Amino acid sequence: MQLSIAIDMDETIADPIKKAREWYYRDYGKTFTPEELHGKTFTEAVPPEHKDKIKEYLNTPGFFRDLDVFPDAKEVLKELNQKYKLYIVSAAMEFPDSLRDKYDWLQEHFPFLTWKQFCLCGDKSIVQTDIMIDDLIRNFTFFKGKAYLYHGHHNVHIEGYERILNWEDAAKKLL
Amino acid sequence: MQLSIAIDMDETIADPIKKAREWYYRDYGKTFTPEELHGKTFTEAVPPEHKDKIKEYLNTPGFFRDLDVFPDAKEVLKELNQKYKLYIVSAAMEFPDSLRDKYDWLQEHFPFLTWKQFCLCGDKSIVQTDIMIDDLIRNFTFFKGKAYLYHGHHNVHIEGYERILNWEDAAKKLL
């Protein structure tokens, strides 16, 4: 029997932070060095008075529609989809305008997946698969399977989880 | 610890069939008697050449936005939400235009729920809660908790599941 695997979207296969940083530069003329983002989410890195602005970006219709795909994600997910029962699970509900954008983005970049494999939820606590790949450990709180923390600047200080550094690394570990 | 409960939308708390029947009457001038729908989904009840038309209805933006709420669902879900960790889980992904409509419909009629409690998926096989209420037994295939079949004209012949006849009955069984 095939094992099931849940794969997150934002900061795992999709890059919303690159776009948020570009918009932030457009609006405030400031970029962030890797040091300034080390151990922080982008929202944590901006001044307190700009946090609502980041939320506004994420709430903009279309924001999630044209995000960059993480390197090698297409190729590796295509292979994972042969070996596992693969699901894309995204905590998208906080940004309802993202729902259709995320659906369309997945259809465009991962045409080998079907709508049956997409799950857009609020809270991932009711999702149970054999394996989960996610960049946020809060999504592992109730998870009973094998969790892989997808490496990102915001989670560098977190310990106690096996990491996936990038999709090439995922291929080594899971294929 | 609170038990978790997953509650379906269509034909459990929302009435898409009433609307589909109205649209069908508008387009073809035909209504269906309870006998004609007994043991059948609405799509199964219409002539083969009209099945795509029903799919077209469900794919129409706005179709799911103003559906009737099932009797007593608001009141009973409000109480269930006090007693359980409640999630609304809908296999909505087949109709991507329904995603935002369903979110807005839930916000309108169930304002005591938050977006964290909404889960719009393709296939419910990765959803695990202690209890699930659904009108389609295919959603119970991989489910390990206690399943309640929400009674409907299309599932009258199905045996082997404890039924919930309506939301008053749910209150008796679960509150």
| Portion in strands of chain A | 15-25%
* Overall number of strands of chain A: 8
Cα-atom Rg of chain A, whole angstroms?
A: 16 Å
Q: What's the SSE pattern of chain A? A: EEHHHHEHEHEEEEH
Q: Which segments of chain A are poorly predicted (pLDDT under 50) over 5 or more consecutive residues?
A: none
Global morphology of chain A:
globular
Provide the residue-averaged pLDDT of chain A. Answer: 97
Oligomeric nature of the chains: homodimer
Largest interface: A-B, 28 and 28 residues
From the 3D coordinates, which CATH architecture of the largest domain in chain A would you assign? 3-Layer(aba) Sandwich
What kind of sheet is the major sheet of chain A? 6 strands, parallel
The CATH homologous superfamily of the largest domain in chain A is called: HAD superfamily/HAD-like
Q: How many domain units of chain A?
A: 2
Strand order of the largest sheet of chain A: 5-4-1-6-7-8
Q: What's the CATH topology name of the largest domain in chain A?
A: Rossmann fold
Short key terms for the protein model shown above:
5'(3')-deoxyribonucleotidase (chains A, B), 8 strands, 5'-nucleotidase activity (chains A, B), HAD_sf (chains A, B), 175 residues, alpha/beta, HAD-like_sf (chains A, B), Rossmann fold, homodimer
